Amino acid sequence: MRSAPVRAIGLQVNGDHFDIECDPRTTLLDALRDHLGLTGSKKGCDRGQCGACTVLVDDRRVVSCLMLAVSAQNRRITTIEGIDEVPSGATMQQAFVDHDGFQCGFCTPGQICSAVGMLDEAKHGWPSSATADVSEPHNGVLDDDEIRERLSGNICRCGAYVNILAAVRSVAGDVAAGEEKS
Hints:
Number of strands: 5
Strand content: 5-15%
CATH topology of the largest domain: DNA polymerase, domain 1
GO molecular function: 2 iron, 2 sulfur cluster binding; metal ion binding; oxidoreductase activity, acting on the aldehyde or oxo group of donors
Strand order of the largest sheet: 2-1-5-3-4
Radius of gyration: 17 Å
Number of helices: 5
CATH architecture of the largest domain: Orthogonal Bundle
Keywords: 2Fe-2S, Iron, Iron-sulfur, Metal-binding, Oxidoreductase
Organism: Williamsia limnetica
Largest sheet: 5 strands, mixed
Protein name: Xanthine dehydrogenase YagT iron-sulfur-binding subunit
Number of domains: 2
Pathway: Alkaloid degradation; nicotine degradation
CATH class of the largest domain: Mainly Alpha
């Protein structure tokens, strides 16, 4: 049996550059956790269904268990460990604490990264399936239905959705009002 090929790749993670050697089939999640020791992103389902591994790649939400690490080269990766450096990141983390938006905490890193990415998407006018008129840019105002729909890819096994919604709603209101505190 032949050993798997190894490839040298460079990743830009949380503002730092890292050179690693890995099998070209290594997922971004495994590269972050196993090669860089960034264990905040969790391996839940390993099928892209639970959202526990959500990170930001070039400010867009990605389930890192479905993205190959080689595909993330030359792209800006933000994990929960660096989320406080992006707009609304620190504010979102504090809102999760203030609103008790977690129970076991397993899904929390993915929930926070997803919420931060979602706020940016709404700010840029991206509609969701809950948006009244998807033919027009979204107005940036996020009601509970919009937040729920936009975060529907992130599963909380404990059922802390009410508190997660309250946390995201509090930050979404600040962002819409232009009062973001990062």
